[in-house]
Specification:
With 310 residues, the chain is of the alpha/beta class. The chain is built from 9 helices and 14 strands. The strands form 2 sheets. A 7-stranded mixed sheet has the order 6-5-4-3-2-1-14. A 7-stranded mixed sheet has the order 7-8-9-10-11-12-13. The chain is globular and about 50 Å long. The N and C termini lie close together (5 Å). The relative contact order is 0.17. The structure holds D-malate (MLT) and manganese (II) ion (MN). The site of D-malate (MLT) has 9 residues, from helix 3.
Length: 310
């Protein structure tokens, strides 16, 4: 199985268009050891020919342009794309807005939880993915779902499972209490398996906490892409960017006793890669104390164009 990191950054990208805080400023000024990145998405393929997107970011056009494997095939028909299917892990803007760029009456199969597909159904702008051409298939949580397009199996199975998280920002309902209206299926993680080889990895670009069930699931796995939105829970508050903590945003932080690095310390995960990294996160800066702490804990920082072969 081939995995291409199309976008490593959280919503807004790195640097985010309106951010002038220190980490973003380093990217704006092309500082050494700082690499701008687009918004959160992976492309995966069992055969190197037919590709599946995990989330569709607002930067999708740029991501396709930068990734030759995703270009229309020169020997194909007048309209063609190796992208056959899209699997969504939540309804965040950074994960669904790219769907709007996949229009032009192109056949695709779109997978998401019923909760996320309901959000798309309630927003008629997504009808640019014309129902005559784009089939929407609800994922069954807790079971392997074979990913297929036009009746052809793509050789990849995803097992979606609910993870601690939050409903999309634009759907938050303050009147619904502390959960803001969050329900099962609003945030899922994926176990992605190549059917032929059995090789598997986990993809969790949003996760609020590593609970006992998740620990059990991830223990001993060979590769996990995990929510790296913030280095510390109060990073946005401390930098004066927002009054929101990571907990309020539905994102675990990297550091600290309740953070991802501590949670994974005894999980025996062979390869751990932070993804969905916010523009404020000092982890972006090579050689920074935070980056060194991350690397010392055995973690990698994803970047656009990174590839993994399983
Ligand atoms: C998130 O990951 O928290 C969201 O992408 C935030 C947003 O929609 O701006
Ligand atoms: Mn996001």
């Amino acid at each position: 199985m081939l995995i291409k990191i199309l976008g490593a950054a959280a919503g807004g990208g790195f640097p985010q268009w309106n951010c002038n805080a220190a980490t973003s400023r380093a990217a704006w000024s092309n500082a050494a050891g700082v690499k701008p990145c687009t918004q959160s998405s992976l492309a995966i393929s069992a055969d190197g020919d037919r590709w599946i997107l995990l989330n569709a970011s607002p930067d999708i056009r740029q991501q396709i342009a930068a990734t030759q494997a995703l270009h229309p095939r020169a020997k194909g028909t007048l309209r063609n794309s190796p992208i056959q299917a899209v699997v969504l892990t939540n309804a965040d803007v950074d994960h669904v807005a790219g769907l709007l760029s996949l229009r032009e009456r192109h056949p695709l199969t779109l997978y998401g939880s019923s909760r996320v597909l309901d959000v798309l159904a309630a927003n008629s702008i997504f009808n640019v993915l014309h129902p005559d051409h784009v089939t929407r298939r609800p994922l069954v949580l807790g079971e392997p779902n074979a990913i297929a397009h036009h009746g052809r199996d793509l050789g990849i199975t995803v097992e979606p499972f609910g993870v601690p998280g939050k409903i999309a920002l634009y759907l938050e309902d303050a009147a619904a209490g502390p959960g803001l209206g969050t329900r099962e299926g609003d945030t899922i993680g994926l176990k992605v398996t190549a059917t032929a080889t059995g090789h598997a990895f986990y993809y969790l670009p949003a996760c609020a906490a590593v609970d006992a069930g998740l620990r059990q699931r991830l223990r001993g796995s060979s590769l996990v892409f995990f929510d790296g939105t913030l280095f510390t829970d109060d990073e946005l508050v401390k930098q004066g960017l927002s009054d929101k903590t990571g907990a309020r945003m539905g994102h675990i932080s990297m550091a600290g006793p309740d953070g991802a690095m501590a949670a994974f310390a005894d999980l025996d995960v062979a390869r751990r890669i932070f993804i969905h990294i916010n523009t404020s996160n000092p982890a972006w800066i090579e050689g920074s104390p935070e980056r060194r702490e991350i690397e010392a804990a055995g973690w990698e920082i994803a970047c656009d164009g990174m590839e993994v072969r399983l």
